[in-house]
From TrEMBL:
Molecular function GO terms recorded: initiator methionyl aminopeptidase activity
Binding site for a divalent metal cation 2: D121, H184, E217, E248
Protein's UniProt name: Methionine aminopeptidase
Binding site residues for a divalent metal cation 1: D110, D121, E248
Binding site for substrate: H93, H191
Enzyme's top EC category: hydrolase
Alphabetical UniProt keywords: Aminopeptidase, Hydrolase, Metal-binding, Protease
Listed cofactors: Co(2+); Zn(2+); Mn(2+); Fe(2+)
Gene3D superfamilies according to UniProt: Creatinase/methionine aminopeptidase superfamily
Pfam families tied to this protein: Peptidase_M24
Family under the similarity heading: Belongs to the peptidase M24A family. Methionine aminopeptidase type 1 subfamily.
Function, as annotated: Removes the N-terminal methionine from nascent proteins. The N-terminal methionine is often cleaved when the second residue in the primary sequence is small and uncharged (Met-Ala-, Cys, Gly, Pro, Ser, Thr, or Val). Requires deformylation of the N(alpha)-formylated initiator methionine before it can be hydrolyzed.
InterPro entries: Creatinase/aminopeptidase-like, Pept_M24, Pept_M24_MAP, Pept_M24A_MAP1
């Protein structure tokens, strides 16, 4: 049974209850998410062959310092970096290091800043120089899948509608959806209820109600959905070494539909990748 509580009545820990936030929370999410989106925008000029993921991590740290924004991932459950950088067959939670990016790589950069206690969580794919068509197409499919998931968010709908829309589209494009990781409630906590699966059935899962705040962050593979965690305890990779891509937005359910907090004000949500309008993908 799903429990909903007004956010102010819910303790600052994940109890399994779904928080319903008010206008002040939405404004807090806008502030935090704006910094995150601006950082991801700036990274479009930085990601290129020869740049290390550690240099990206350093940039994200400094960008936040200059804006009084703290990277949520730093020291989170022992994670030692300010950002996750996941390259090619890395599904998520890649750890920045001093190995340079290569021409043709694709890299997901996942940034979460905390501003005044609110978490703005978002990620994008970046092509490194000229990439192969298979890599570009995977990024296009993944971004369209995210948009379809967002389009499914409306009061009276269900969390399962999001996953069903994503999975239905990804399968039609001969791609697989990773099931080991999911979207999540966000706000004053980095990870909160509900879990937002990127697969499932229409009409299933918790009902979507105004005031809910969560992420949608599908991970889509060119090969099979199976993943494994490397010895570092964080890095998730595809078992078949196929490519993986991910896009993520934080959003809040409104009376009319939803508000996406982490959209790029510069239209750079898909930096370096051309994605036709959603209507053309339907």
């Amino acid at each position: 049974m799903t429990t909903y509580l007004e956010a102010e009545a819910n303790p600052q820990r994940n109890t399994g209850a779904i928080r319903l936030y008010g206008p002040e929370a939405f404004e807090g999410m806008r502030r935090a998410s704006r910094v995150t989106a601006e950082c991801l925008d700036a990274l479009a000029e930085i990601v290129k062959p020869g740049v290390t993921t550690q240099a990206i991590d350093d940039f994200v740290w400094q960008f936040g310092v200059e804006r009084n924004a703290a990277p949520a991932s730093l020291h989170y459950r022992g994670f030692t970096k300010s950002v996750c950088t996941s390259i090619n067959h890395v599904v998520c939670h890649g750890i920045p290091n001093n190995k340079p990016l290569k021409e043709g790589d694709i890299v997901n950069i996942d940034v979460t800043y905390v501003v005044d206690g609110w978490h703005g969580d978002s990620s994008r794919m970046y092509p490194v120089g000229q990439v192969k068509r298979v890599s570009e197409r995977l990024c296009e499919v993944t971004y369209r899948a995210l948009l379809l998931g967002i389009a499914a968010v409306k009061p009276g709908g269900h969390v399962g509608d999001i996953g069903a829309a994503i999975e239905e589209y990804a399968r039609a494009e001969r791609c697989s959806v990773v099931r080991d990781f999911c979207g999540h409630g966000v706000g004053q906590l980095f990870h909160d209820a509900p879990n937002v699966l990127h697969y499932g059935s229409y009409g299933e899962g918790p009902e979507l109600k105004p005031g809910m705040i969560f992420t949608i962050e599908p991970m889509i593979n060119t090969g099979r959905q199976n993943v494994k965690i490397l010895a570092d305890g964080w890095t998730a990779v595809t078992r078949d070494r196929g490519l993986s891509a991910q896009y993520e937005h934080s959003l809040g359910v409104t009376e009319e539909g939803c508000e996406v907090f982490t959209y790029s004000l510069k239209g750079l949500d898909t930096p370096g990748i051309t994605v036709p309008p959603l209507a053309a993908a339907a």
